[in-house]
Amino acid sequence: SSAKLWGGRFTGATDPLMDAFNASIHFDKRLFEADILGSQAYAKALAKRGIITSNECELIVDGLKKVLEEWRTNTFKIQPADEDIHTANERRLGEFVGSVAGKLHTGRSRNDQVATDLRIWAREEAKKLLVYVKQLIYAAVERAEKEIDVLMPGYTHLQRAQPIRWSHWLLSYAWSWQADAQRLEQIIDRINVLPLGSGALAGNPFNIDREFLAKELGFKSVIQNSLYGVSDRDFVAELLFWASMTMIHISRFSEDLIIYSSGEFGFVSLADAYSTGSSLMPQKKNPDSCELLRGKSGRVFGQLSGFLMTYKGIPSTYNKDLQEDKEPLFDAVETLAGSLQITTGIHPENMKKNLSIDMLATDVADYLVRKGVCRVPFRETHHIAGAAVKTAEDRNITMANLELSDFKQLHSSFEQDVTELWDYEKCVENRSSVGGTSRATVLEQIQNLKRLLNEN
Ligand code: ARG
Prior knowledge:
Layout: H1 16-22, H2 25-28, H3 32-48, H4 54-72, H5 85-97, H6 110-146, E1 151-156, E2 159-165, H7 166-191, E3 193-194, H8 210-216, E4 221-222, H9 226-231, H10 234-260, E5 269-270, H11 288-312, H12 326-345, E6 348-349, H13 361-371, H14 378-394, H15 404-410, H16 424-430, H17 439-455
Helix pairs in contact: 3-4, 3-6, 3-8, 4-5, 6-7, 6-12, 6-17, 7-10, 7-17, 10-11, 10-12, 11-12, 13-14
This protein binds arginine (ARG).
Arginine binds at residues 24, 28, 84, 110-111, 114, 318, 320, 322-323.
């Protein structure tokens, strides 16, 4: 046990099962770069306070660069005693620069070290995810712009409701993703505060310059309480929630496409690049991409709830439970990076108009409201329009095939111009208040989303 960083006070050996149970190197090796950047900054801060000489500092910083190079070229050899990324890097640094490596950890603890590493890693990964989200929004916006002419049935309760623009449907998801992008930007701000210099829990005894450390490592400010600094993992929970929320949007989008691409709906077919066939049934083209996206959302929610369970009962400051923060975060980030890129690539082909006259029933009611210049209350016109639907249905025809006399029988305000209602394009264009499905308001959404995309 003397090979261990903390071996001094131990005489007995650790149970090998415990060694394996305790080790986190097999997953936290992902933090290699963050760990080395943090150590290089800390060495400089030690030199600034005269704890190490500038010569020693140079040795350490250069040695760490060599360690980093090994990770990058996949030549770093993990040893059995390397319990986590912090011990592995320090051990290897010692092999490069000798005993001066042992000065690096002065006043530092793995507690403030790991909190710092994880924040650096999370910040950089979140920035990448933000790019992916924005690419996804951009793809949706571009598509919406190109296909603004296409109309489709809009649904409530999965029942035909009113005609809408296909672009309007597409942009409804773009707006969700826009909110996701905004949320992520805010989370990045909260990640980006520095724990390093908190020590094990009580603070740094060498008056280390934490503002300097923050600047070196790109943090916006310094965490003001060392106990909070070593134990706060709210940013992990926030990222996991963000990932869950974003996956909900992706999952619902996927579900729509799965339904729309079924033979029964037949609105779209998915591009070959994102579908697969059946080994048995030659005619099949399955929307596997969408099903996987819908499926993977469940896995991400599981990571969120799992981590919250781990986090809830931990007493003040660092406890080893916190080592369990990493795998859920790594897995969720990886799943999101993949899912966002796949979602961006999915291209539904041939959106087909698939409308029916009954979807204009609301417009019949609205027509009467306009005719009566508000004398007839909508509740009543709704009833009359319903009766028109019923009459047509009973005769096995559409409302468009009813005679004016049929309408007159339902209400005297109906006139010849009722036939002008049987026009889906007009129906859609009527919805021209902000947020509606008319061409102008959809184009406005496109402009606004583009502006938001270009803001940062
Ligand atoms: N591998 C540990 C983790 O991920 C590093 C911190 C260990 N600190 C300690 N006091 N044991 O949380």
